[in-house]
Amino acid sequence: MDDKLKEVKAILKKYGQEHLLNHYDKLDESHKKKLLEEIEEIDFDLVNSLYESTKKELKNSKDEITPIDYLDKFKLGDKYKYYEDIGKKAIKEGKLATVTMAGGQGTRLGHDGPKGTYDIGLDSHKSLFELLCDGLKEEGKKYGVTIPWFIMTSKENNDETVKFFKEHKYFGYEKDKNLFFFIQGELPMVDTEGKILIGEDGLIKLAADGHGGVYESLVKDGMTKKMRELGVEWVFIGGVDNCLVNMVDPVLIGIAIDKKVTVACKSVVKANPHEKVGVFCRKNGKPNVIEYSEITDEMAEARDKDGELLYGESHILCNLFSVDAIERMGAEPLPYHVAYKKATYIDKDGNLVVPDSPNAYKFEAFLFDAFSEVDDMAVLRVKREEEFAPVKNSDEAGVDCPKTARELYKKFHHLD
């Protein structure tokens, strides 16, 4: 331990982060060991460059933003069955796996535990995890296969998530055979001076690196290798908080195969021109998603000859990738975005600081930033009421909350 401590001290001195060991002597042996390991894992050059990026003013973008073509699932005509048959064949051959991003906690919902364990209030009292699993098993029976399920947790909720699944006998899946858990990456949070924060437990204050970290985590944790061993060629990636997510869609897969693209995404049309959602587009000719704040009012309201919004396809985090694409996207980290957040921490004098306003930076990557790595992709418009019922806010918010999700779920499944 002494040699390791000396090495760590030298690293911290080099980067001006010596304060991370201020309370080292007060920790028990296991926490001392963990803190040293955490410090050794930090990419200080990356943290420094990310902090420096917080000081730079955003320059006026000169990117050329243009609309992207899309297909409407319910206006495909004869092509619907054509695409569906192609997709069905791939599913029957075991070429599809699914990934659920479930690294978050249910804090905003007043739930003490992983978000996936949340009960949205159905009569069945099923958790989000079980609702998603029901859909997967139902589709698997339809095609005579068990669709492999990969679940991305976080360091914060991994143990609790795995325990929850174990208590529920993995909902009929078999761990490490067709059910796999892997952990999302994390980055240290820093204060406005660029100093890495220490959390209440005396360890590094870490925050998940955003849903864009899914590619790198899948590759680093050996999940894409596992997929290849299982014969998987296509992977649907979605979030745990959409209780109507349709992870097994032969039409989406058929379109991707037929059009020879490595990425195919689902969209829902914006509720109104100024809905605050990211929308599909082309940026400098490449597929992309831009935030609502990046387009002018004129662009937001522009319509095509059929009266459809030119920038009306909302990104709903329902995306299909080839395994090749995931490995390519996971080879290098995506660019990180800065978020200014409230963070409770231990100061240099050992006091617990609970801020009432933002005081720290966290850094996260967005999944859709990888879209620009491909020359083309398919966008399939689906019906909001059939595939998008997110649970993000408490009922007080009135939108994207347990009440609205529950109503959509019951209506879709005819439970009323």
β-sheet strand percentage: 15-25%
What is the CATH top level name? Answer: Alpha Beta
- Sheet/helix structural class: alpha/beta
Count of the domains: 1
Walk me through the structure:
It is a single chain. With 416 residues, the protein is an alpha/beta fold. The protein has one domain: Spore Coat Polysaccharide Biosynthesis Protein SpsA, Chain A (Alpha-Beta Complex), CATH 3.90.550.10. The chain has 13 helices and 18 strands. It has helices spanning 2-15, 29-41, 44-53, 79-92, 128-143, 158-167, 214-220, 223-229, 250-258, 297-301, 323-329, 384-387, 402-412; strands at 65-66, 71-72, 96-101, 149-153, 179-183, 186-188, 190-191, 206-208, 234-239, 263-269, 279-283, 286-290, 313-322, 337-341, 345-346, 352-353, 360-364, 378-381. Strands 2-18-10-13-9-3-4-5 form an eight-stranded mixed beta sheet. Strand 3, helix 5 (128-143) and strand 4 form a beta-alpha-beta unit. Helix 4 (79-92) crosses helix 9. It is globular, with a radius of gyration of 23 Å. The relative contact order is 0.16. The model has no long low-confidence stretch (mean pLDDT 94).
